[in-house]
Amino acid sequence: MTSRRTFLHSAAAAGVASLGLPALAAAPSLRDKRPLIIDALGSIDNINLSAALRDSAASDFGIDARALADAKASGLNAFNMTIGHVFGDGDPYEKTLADVHAWNAFIQRKSADLLLVRSAADIKRAQADGRIGVILGFQNAAMMGKDARRVESFAKGGVRVIQLTYNGANQLGDGSMVPTNKGLTPFGREVVAELNRNRILVDLSHSGEQICLDAAAASKAPIIISHTGCRALADLPRNKTDKELRLVAEKGGFVGIYFMPFLAVGRQPMAADLIAHIEHAINVCGEDHVGIGTDGTVPQIDDMPTYMKGLEEEVRQRRAAGISAPGERPDIVPFLPDLMGRDKFWKLADLLAKRGHSSSRIEKILGTNFLRAADGVWS
């Protein structure tokens, strides 16, 4: 089955132009300051390459010269890269273990451009060196099997973020698409304790509401929701309630807002919707706990018609597998058409500034809020 990372990324400049959307000015003063930019869930692969190339370790996971150039031009300093088992066939543990080894080897081969992030200091180091920090993360904890001690081996392999569930259920509890909304199981509590002990960020994206609340209460360390939206603005299962958002903030954690279809109901979301979700999250959580987790990549798509055909097939596959969420549609692209490409972070900064947000708050949203939360766990 094709992975979600295959399709859920960026729009082409030509595609944006065909929509008749106005170009947005960048924020030169902030750009000149070189603010820290961290994508709490994203990628940098070149979406224009074939799916096989992007998914293969032998082809550098689709991170070619263009991908690196675009990512650096965007100002991105670090990103949380999903690896390992998310859904589908195969043994979750074996798949994930192989991915950890492959990504460690890849980052080592590309050490002139990439740096494996094990600490908050590594992100600052990547910024200073002109490299991009790669935070290895999981979007499912199914690979733990029945042994929570596996967390330690993944931690030693450089994994720094582990999401408890994907959309479905696993042995830790229920994901966002499971009607029973089962909370954190006894085994799930063991895993959370091991994540705390091994200084790995607990990620509650994709989780059902009850497991989110349970895990936030059970964790002895700050937790994150790396990529989500606000249920109060768009009543969809992938978005989080104010109660969930507030509890994460009260625990000293972080909430990343995504650039995804779930920002609006029944229509294509745009940059204005992202701003609305960021502002709502700030009102609920406070400005020290909100940032971005795009769930996308940086390079734009060159061939939009081909992309749209691929998106249609992706949605069909996900629905057939029972892992699709309301809001995923073949006629709604999983990105923001007016906020894409290598300038997307600068455009976001400019939009926030025009809304009256201070430079210091914008810098928090772009990266320092994530860094603070992560440092509280990784140190």
Summed up:
The protein is α/β, with parallel strands linked by helices and 379 residues long. Helix content is 41%, strand content 10%. Helix 9 (209-218) runs parallel beside helix 10 and helix 13 (344-354) crosses helix 14 (359-378).
Summary keywords:
TIM Barrel; 379 residues; 41% helix; globular; 9 strands; alpha/beta
Describe this structure in words.
The protein has one domain: Alpha-Beta Barrel (TIM Barrel). 41% of the residues lie in helices and 10% in strands. The chain contains 14 helices and nine strands. β5 (159-163), α8 (186-197) and β6 (201-203) form a beta-alpha-beta unit. α9 (209-218) packs parallel to α10 (242-250) and α13 crosses α14 (359-378). The termini are far apart. Residues 1-27 have low confidence and may be disordered.
Beta strand count: 9
| Arithmetic mean of pLDDT | 92
Number of discrete helical segments: 14
The structural class is alpha/beta
Q: What is the rounded Rg?
A: 19 Å
Uncertain runs: 1-27
Shape: globular
Order of helices and strands: HHEHHEHEHEHEHEHEHEHEHHH
Q: Tell me roughly what share of residues is in helical segments.
A: 40-55%
Number of domains: 1
Using the coordinates above, name the CATH class.
Answer: Alpha Beta
CATH homologous superfamily caption:
Metal-dependent hydrolases
Q: Cα distance, first to last residue?
A: 38 Å
